[in-house]
Amino acid sequence: MLQESDVIDYLERLALLKFTESEREKVRIEIIKIIELFNELMKVEELDRVEPLYHVIEIELPLRDDEPLDTVDSSHELLSENAILENGYIKAPKTVGE
């Protein structure tokens, strides 16, 4: 069984930290609280019968109907109006040193 000090030493190494004695005490207290919380969760029985809760208040969001829009048939149509093409590539001005 691991001792509390071993766990804190491990956390220090893992996080590349060095705790002062007062910080070690705070971390120890927080670890105890976390362990107590998990122990409480472990006491819950018969989780198979509990339905999942997605939101405390049941909200139904209104969704719009999907309607298809006119789309461009090819990338060349889309680029031909706004870009300079060279060999199928967009040609842009040089931006890095001359």
From TrEMBL:
GO MF term set: transferase activity
What keywords would UniProt list here?
Transferase
Q: What is this protein called?
A: Asp-tRNA(Asn)/Glu-tRNA(Gln) amidotransferase subunit GatC
Tagged with keyword Disulfide bond: no
What sections of the protein cross the membrane?
Answer: none
**GO BP of this protein:** glutaminyl-tRNAGln biosynthesis via transamidation; regulation of translational fidelity
Q: Which gene encodes it?
A: gatC
